[in-house]
Structures are given as C-alpha cells and as structure tokens.
Amino acid sequence: MKNIDRDLYKHMITVAELIEQLQNFRPTDFIVLQEDAEGNGFSPLADVDPGTYIPETTWMGEAKQYDTPYARGRGFDDEDFHNNPDG
Fold this sequence. Notes:
About 15% of the residues lie in helices and about 20% in strands. The protein is of the alpha+beta class. The chain has one domain (about 5-80). The chain has a two-stranded antiparallel sheet with strand order 1-2. The model has no long low-confidence stretch (mean pLDDT about 80).
C-alpha cells in the first residue's frame, strides 16, 4: 500500500459537506465546479461516478472507479478500478 499525504486532501470537501451546501439551492439549479479556491476556472458538472481521487499534487491527481456492477455497465474495466480507499 502506498503512503498518502493526507495534506493533499485539505482543499477537498466530503459528500456530507456538499449535501449541506446544496441545501441552499433549488433542485433545478445547475452545478458548476470551481477549479480552485481562488476561482481560476469553472466547469459544469456533467456526471458523478462512484470512485476515489488519488492526488499527485495539491491541485492535480487521478480519478479511479470502484469496481461495481454500475461502473462495469458503463464500460469501465480492470485498469480503471481502484478498490483500496487507503491508496
């Protein structure tokens, strides 16, 4: 198991924090993702997949899917999966 620098996660929010923040919006509002805390870039949220984010630096990393029937049904395969939440 590789060592994960937990400090790399300090700029991320949890699902619980996101749900709490979303309570302030209408269900019909669109979600726009902010690239960083300073607002240097924005993108619309197009989809959500069950998986994990593996940070390489504070602002860059790799997303890996969890191996689930849902993910396999969407075309993901063994090289896309990451099943160890601790890295």
